[in-house]
Amino acid sequence: MADRRILVIGSSGQIGTELVEGLRERFGADHVVASDIKEPQVEQTGPFVMANAMDRRGIERIIDKHGINEVYLLAALLSATAEKDPAFAWQLNMESLFIVLELAREGKLKKVYWPSSIAVFGPTTPKDGTPQHTIAEPTTVYGISKLAGEGWCHYYHKRYGVDVRSIRYPGLIGWKSAPGGGTTDYAVHIFHEAIKQGRYTSFLGPGTTLPMMYMPDAIRGTIELMEAPADRVKERTSYNLAGFSFAPEEIAAEVKRHIPDFVLDHAPDQRQAIADSWPRSIDDSAARADWGWKPEYDLAAMVDDMMANLVPLLRG
Ligand code: SER
Predict the structure, then answer these.
(1) Catalytic residue among 113, 142, 156, 239, which?
(2) Most buried by CB count within 10 Å: which residue of 7, 48, 118, 160?
(3) Does the C-beta of 184 come closer than 6 Å to ligand 1?
(4) Does residue 193 carry a pLDDT above 60?
């Protein structure tokens, strides 16, 4: 453990903010270098450096300077933002991955983590209990980049023995960090608006059921996958991971337990088509069998914990 030196690229985003905290708690603040092109969302308890995920020389300098042997690459454009600039999304999502995979192939890194997404699936995928191995014909540039990236991870593992591990995250919900550019972000915004305004207009319509997960489960799952013995990590594309599934009106009903007058409206926009192309629920039996994954939070427990933390934060 003492020789573990971790670099998180994209540490100022929704996952990075909480993952850095989780890694620092487990491995010590000085063993985790956070880096991003943007300033951090929260005060840093360990080293932070500005870095561009597409600048190979810059990334290599950080790795050399800090003796890094493990990288979590989180920099990416998410589904909704990527549709606004497909060419740049492809460039960022792919180039950053190649840089890290190449550094690992050259022997500079022992382990790499790279997130994939339920966005690898598309309209032709079975929507309920989507299996680990199934049809994946994504219709978003984000999904195309994640599916291609999974293929490259698998290739670098098989051909060069690179120890790269990955999870297909569902929509992630947390109170410590702000999401940005995702189709599932409404499930975070709803809390902020419910607490501040008593109402929220969802950009997804009623009945839009999507797979979701509470951030503490996602962070624990990520670190558990990275801590699993290499021979237990059998899927070298990316693992399906499930928490719970709900539609906007179902999370609204849970919020109403805390704020009885809460009103939910709907004004679907271009994100509706993205959501409609994705699964409703995910089969994660491979992750459970291979490395012991098990979620802790269901919808009600997540909502209770979000409210318990956000109400004092937003109301003062
Ligand atoms: N939460 C992500 C998004 O909506 C899915 O990976 O883009």
Answers:
(1) 142
(2) 118
(3) yes
(4) yes
